[in-house]
Specification:
Strand content: 15-25%
Radius of gyration: 11 Å
Distance between the termini: 11 Å
Structural class: alpha+beta
Order of helices and strands: EHEHEEH
Number of domains: 1
Number of helices: 3
CATH class: Alpha Beta
Mean pLDDT: 96
CATH topology: Glutaredoxin
Strand order of the largest sheet: 2-1-3-4
CATH architecture: 3-Layer(aba) Sandwich
Low-confidence stretches: none
Shape: globular
Length: 76
């Protein structure tokens, strides 16, 4: 099974959509709340080069924003 991490905040609607989408496809993921963990927030910025959420890491590939087509491509 491919490893999926999602860097998100509780108030981000796109983060919620991304998590719901992954769940609807039966894909387990690790949710990382960057509003509660400064170290993880810095890790996310290093990975993606940006402060915006969501940032997904799917099998080592970084996806910024909720991009269904990219997610589908990476989890096939």
């Amino acid at each position: 099974m491919i490893e999926i991490k999602i860097y998100s905040t509780p108030t981000c609607p796109y983060c919620t959509q991304a998590k719901q989408y992954l769940s609807s496809k039966g894909l387990p993921y690790e949710n990382i709340d960057v509003s509660a963990d400064q170290e993880k927030a810095q890790e996310m910025v290093k990975l993606s080069g940006q402060m915006g959420v969501p940032v997904l890491v799917i099998g080592g590939t970084v996806v910024t924003g909720f991009d269904k087509s990219k997610i589908d491509l990476l989890v096939k």
